[in-house]
Amino acid sequence: MAEITATISRPQRWDVPFDDKMDAAAVDRLLAIPPFSRIDASQFPKSTPLRDILLNDTSLRVFRKGEVIVREGDYGNSAFFILRGSVTVTLGKNAIPAALLGRRETRKKGLLETLGQLWGNPAQPEMRDVSRYQSAKTAARGGVESRGPFGRTQSPFQTPGTAVFLHDVPAVLKGGTATLQAGVFFGEIAALGRTPRTATIIAAEGSELLEIRWQGLRELRLRAPEIKQFVDENYRKYSLENHLRETPYFKDLSPAELKIVADQTRFETYGAFDWQTDYKKNRDTDPVARLRGEPVIAEEGQYANGLILIRAGFARLSQKYNNGERTALYLARGQMFGLREIAHNWRTKESTPLRYTLRALGYVDVLVVPTSVVEQYIMPKIPAAEMPPPIPPLQGNTTLVSPLDQVHGKIPTDFIEFLVDNRFINGRATMLIDLNRCTRCDDCVRACAAAHDNNPRFIRHGPQLGHYMVANACMHCLDPVCMIGCPTGAISRDATGGQVVINDTTCIGCSTCANSCPYNNIQMVEIRDDRGELILDQEKKPVNKAAKCDLCLEQVTGPACVRACPHDALTRLNMQETDQLAQWLQR
Hints:
Radius of gyration: 25 Å
Number of strands: 26
Structural class: alpha+beta
Distance between the termini: 64 Å
Shape: globular
Number of helices: 18
Low-confidence stretches: 102-106, 136-162, 397-408
CATH architecture of the largest domain: Sandwich
Helix content: 10-25%
């Protein structure tokens, strides 16, 4: 008797809609109100028409007064448009206690479960329970979220059907707050920039919101300039002043002064949203040519015509050196450039030019506050003790002009070049190995395999500089471009910890994430049933799934690779924590 081989249907782009309650009538309603009524539907391709985006990538959500919509610090994969009602936004340091926001710890494996991994793993790697794929259309989307009433996104750690409420909102929100009314977008920066939410937002009354997952929002911004313009105008009107208020040196401005500064601030964008494509194409070319290909935001030798605040992305800080340039530092979201020159010229009445060039590393979103505005409103408010130090005259190599002066000298220049050229600065959990300590015992690999069903999720090799190596392991990037092209949203951020995770159920094996990853840290693997036989699709072809490091999200002891190293040769580091990096290099 012939043995039966397991087969499954391959999921398609919209097999798992964002909200299965959306229908044609709801789409018609959206297309009758601004800004959606202004969109030219003919600009959308037949493969992703406007109506299908609104039908499959959006959700109508109803919130009751006091219900939490988004929480500060959570990683958002969607944006919101207020259809009816209003919401309250917490501002400044107005933190809401975690318990009131319903936060829970990620469910960790217990001691017995952890020990059981040592002998309970399958005989072959990547074995699956086939039955879970049979109900893929009702499976959780995005790796960590599930659908609740009204199409609500809920944490799997909450009781199904429940929501988080702040019953006495005015008492909880004792600091500054703002109110957003119907007709306003919010959450788009976190959704498109793949960054944490910067505020907690609560329904101020019974409200109806349209939630748009980032895949659909990206398509709308790409094909409909009306949406991009509308979102940018919303940001200037409702969010820019708060952004500036939270920026050092702006905190002492009066509300009237802050509004003047915000009105004069420019929005500028450099590079491509899917920057990894050009990077992968050009990373093996001549370094000088690569550098010249990076868009210049501000150039050494030019007058500082504005204070640059990085809103999203990364930028390279470089300086002329001999016949070329050398990288001094890298800047990321929340950092600024140009203040030292502006302050020096304001105090001395000189016209000292910029000492460094600022280039976009991929996609960079910046705010530019004109120099005249900075001199009039910012400089007089900075206490003498906090004023940037004067710039010495040009004599040979100059000193670093950056908010990160303290890092200079602690991390070797060639190591900074290595991190920037390879874009390792993107990593929030980069695996660094000190080859002088590593004995090649492979304990780290075996520990990873034990924690992941007999298949290690990283490869112990990678680019090297001297005796340091960056291994091929998911870095859980600050800007995870692997998420950009996922057609089903199967790869996403964990809502609480920010780890980049893959929903095995909704992954269609298209390899988009693996091809997008600039670091080759995602592998496509053939999966097997509980008998060890390959799982095939309806065309009798092996089904592949994306697999990568999940930072041992479920392990109570944290990353198994780090825990298993007997010689302290391996670590996982956030490349934005330059002090920790310097300490590790100087051990």
